[in-house]
Design brief:
Strand order of the largest sheet: 1-4
Largest sheet: 2 strands, antiparallel
Distance between the termini: 21 Å
Shape: globular
Low-confidence stretches: 1-16
Number of strands: 4
Number of helices: 9
Mean pLDDT: 90
């Protein structure tokens, strides 16, 4: 595309269609798949990041993809990406209302949640940090997220080496395992991107 403007290059790239194996796609409706891909496009993410999104949702929802699943640690978080009550309020809703939505409808709130972070999300690790601890988007994988207190206790299951510290790499490891599982035969669905 030598000699074209950035705008023309972007339009050409956007017009290219392809198929991707969407992680966890066989475990949700076709509408859910289409919506997850559309969100990834609107947030200007790479095609593979639609699978990252699906893997984050799989992890946060305990592989249920249920809009009403509650946080097991008692934080009050609910739904596909475990939206906290205060966060729900900032999105113009409540966790009580979120859990009444269909999974497909709750994806609208997932998109609204990610919108302020979208440009900074380049990796699976960064996407998961947007959910868990947004201030660590772009940080080193060795960054320490939790070292003590209530937050550590609530997330101690992420401390893979049981050293009393949860790093960004450790926190993301379980989501990465969800991605690998979600791309196995029987879990993914081939979809247009």
């Amino acid at each position: 595309m030598i000699g074209t403007t950035y705008h023309e290059d972007k339009e050409a790239l956007e017009s290219v269609r392809g198929k991707i194996n969407l992680a966890w796609g066989s475990k949700v409706s076709e509408d859910f798949c289409r919506k997850a891909v559309a969100i990834s496009k609107r947030l200007s993410w790479q095609p593979s990041q639609a699978s990252d999104l699906m893997s984050c949702i799989a992890f946060e929802s305990g592989e249920t993809f249920s809009p009403s699943v509650k946080n097991m640690a008692g934080s009050g978080a609910t739904g596909l990406i475990q939206i906290m009550p205060n966060t729900a309020h900032g999105l113009g809703t409540t966790v009580e209302d979120l859990k009444l939505l269909t999974a497909e409808s709750q994806l609208d709130y997932v998109e609204m949640y990610f919108l302020p972070y979208a440009k900074r999300i380049k990796t699976l690790s960064d996407m998961y940090m947007a959910i868990l601890m947004p201030k660590f988007i772009g940080a080193s994988d060795l960054a320490r997220l939790f070292t003590n207190g209530t937050a550590y206790r609530q997330n101690s299951g992420l401390d893979a080496n049981n050293d009393g510290t949860v790093t960004k790499r450790e926190a993301t490891a379980k989501v990465a395992a969800e991605l690998a599982k979600g791309l196995r035969p029987g879990y993914y669905r081939q979809v247009d991107f």
